[in-house]
Each structure stands twice: as structure tokens, then as C-alpha cells.
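Ticket #4471: structure output looks truncated?

Reporter: J.K.
Steps to reproduce: submitted the chain below (445 residues) through the standard prediction queue, then opened the result file.
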Amino acid sequence: MSIEQIVELYRICGRPPLDGVHFAGEADFTQVKALVRRIINDDIARFDDLFVDSLDVLYDIDNLPDHGERISFRLRLPTHSSSTFHNNISSLLYVDPRISHGEMPLDYYIIDDDYYSNDLVAPEYIESLGRICQLIKGLSSLAHYHDEKPSNGFLRLVFIQSTNGALVKPVELETRVTLSVIEAAVDLEPRLVVELSESRAANDPHFSAKVGVFGTSLATFVSNRPTGGAFDFLIIHWREFVAEYQRDLSTYLSGFAFHKAKTEVAEAELKIAGEFSKVLNEMSGKLLSIPVSVAAIIAMPKASSIYEQSLILLGIIIASYIIWRTVENQRRQFDRIDHAKEIVICAIEGKKESYPQELSVAVDDLTKFLRSDANALRKNLQLFGVMSWLPLFIAILSLFYVYKNNVISLWPTIVDCLNQYFLENIKFAIEYIDSALRGITLFIS
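Returned output as attached by the reporter:
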């Protein structure tokens, strides 16, 4: 039930003075008849006197006359809660201890300022009181623990201040709301604690860190106050505390970001180095077949015929080709890894300017070592590619040594054949060019 009808009736009567919990008034009956009926039906206040055109209708209050000119009354206000009339804000604070718990009263009237809680425009101190209640609610959810003594009606919020070693120092914050606290909260902005205390803030990956830093910063800030109550000091110096908290949080997150970035650099280095090592290990296993091919060369001079030697040579050619293709495949895989390495290095170096000196040096070392390893592995793969054809080269030399006399005796014939082949092709080319030039000359003429 609301006291809105009582407030409206009080204002229509010209806001007469209160006599304790009563006020007497007089008004046009037609204007206030509906209000009087609502007050009677809602049973939120009691009429001690009620006259319509000087006729006492209190004895039959449920049946007010339908017509009349003037109504006079004496109304007893509700007293069971803060939902009533208060001379000023101090009276409201005294009557409703829930304010010190962060609960803003919802239905009340301040006589001195003619303000009702449902009015669109509120006095400055009411807005300050609302911000204080938001702050208390937020602090209550962020405190390490809190307690309430039934005798005093306010909360005792406890925040833990870290000290040297394993010791901790609790700092108590008594949320007693007074007129001086309200006056000091004119510029209070509780958005920080409201955001931290909202449940959706738990989706923030740094939520726990922010809450932990907040509690420690608040305890440290309040413990360094010169004199006075901790809660009053916090309200008065709230802007300074928020700035200090932001600095503490920035320092924490910078350390967190540094650790994370350092871990990323180390993981990138280990992963890429591992891929390089994997390429080299896989290639090393394939190269074990080269000695087998070399061993087959030993059997070539001992073969009984040219046909057996040719078969051995063919086997060596096939083995060398397979090894070479394997090396090429590993080289292509290395090129992909090397390309990915450059992307990772560029991504890390792009943020290097924001890193501290220690991490910047680590990034430079990462770039230097990985590129050095890549160059070394590239050269090894090139060497392996050459080595894959080494058995074939040795086999050819071996056959040349075995049949060197035949090769020497046939060498003039081979040279003549080659010369004749090249001379015939050169002659054909000259004749073809001559015919082409003749055709072009005829076409022009």
C-alpha cells in the first residue's frame, strides 16, 4: 500500500503543520472525495475527525455522502514503517536502519522539502542517498566477509589487506549512513562497484583478479586514512580510491600480460623448433638407405655379366630417385613450416614495442635462433638432396673404371657420332633459317 493518496491530500490542504503523527486540514469536498475514499478503503491511515459541511460522518465513514462543499478532517499517519511522513532526511535515516544496509526506501515523504519518493524531480541529497545505497550493496557483495550487529543496524564489511610475509590485516568498514556522509556523496560515482558486483561480470576472464585487487586496494587505502571513520573517509575520497585501484589493477594486468606473452613466446619457440627437429629426424631415417645402395656398388664389379651389372645399376637409380623424392617432400614440408614460422615471428614482433625490455630481448633471441635453425636445416636438406644421388654417381664411376678400356677405344666413335649429330642439326637449322628469310623477302616484295 502506498501513501501517495495521503501526500496528495496533504498538498491539496496546503501542507498544514503536523501535530505529532496527525495533521488537520480542510478542502473542497468534490476535489478530495475520491482521495478520502481511497484512504479509507486502503486502511493505511485513520481519520480521527471527519466532517462534511460541518456534519460529522466519522460514525458512518464507509458511507460518505455523494455531495458536499467542504470537508474537514484530522488524519492519523501510519507509523509502522518508513513509509510515512518525515520532517527531514535525518528523521528518515533514524527511522529506517535498512538504509545503512544499502536498501533505499521506496515510499516516503519529506515535509521540509515537499518531496515524495515518486516525484520525478528529487533533491540532490536524495540522489546522493541513492548512490550511497548502491555503493553499500556493491561493497557488501565484494567484501571478504561481513557481519551485522543487531544493536546498531549497520553492516561491518571486512576487507583483507596484504602485508609482508604471510600475515594479513583485516580492515573493517562500518556502513553507517549519516547526514555528513550524504553531503560528502554529492560527487560519488559507484559505477565501479556496481559493475564488479553484477553477476554478468563473472563472464570476464579477469573477474576474480579484479575483485581481489579491489579488496586489497580498498583495505590498503582505508588503512592509511589519517583520522575519522573508514566509511566516511572512503566516501569523501572515493575518486582518489578509484584512481589508485585502477593503477593497482593496471600493474597486476601488466604483469599478467607479460607472463602470458612470455609464455606465448616460449611455446612458439618450442613448437617451431620441435617441427624442425621432426623434419630432420624423419629425413635421417630415410638417409639410412644410402649406405645400403653404396654397399650394392661393391657387388657390381663382381657381377658375372653386363646384364647383372645393369640390373644393379637400375636398382641404384630407383633407390636414389626414391630418396631424392623423399628429400623433396621433406623440403616442401620444411617450406610450409618456415612460412608458418615467419607468420608467428611477425605476429610476435608486431607487439614487441609494448613489451618490457626483458621480453623484447627474448623476442629478438627467438627470431635469431629460429631463423638460424631454419637456414641450417635448409642447407642440410640441400646436402641430403645431393647425397641421394651419390650412390648413382659412385656406381657410374665404378662401371667406368671397369669398362674404361672399352670406353677409351670407343671414345673417337662416340665423338664422331656426336659431331655428326650436331653438324646435321646445325645444317638443318641453317637451311630452315635461309628458307624463312627467302619467304619473308618474297612476301615483302
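Triage note (M.O.): checked the attachment and the full C-alpha cell line is present. The two ends are 118 Å apart (CA to CA).
Status: closed, working as intended.
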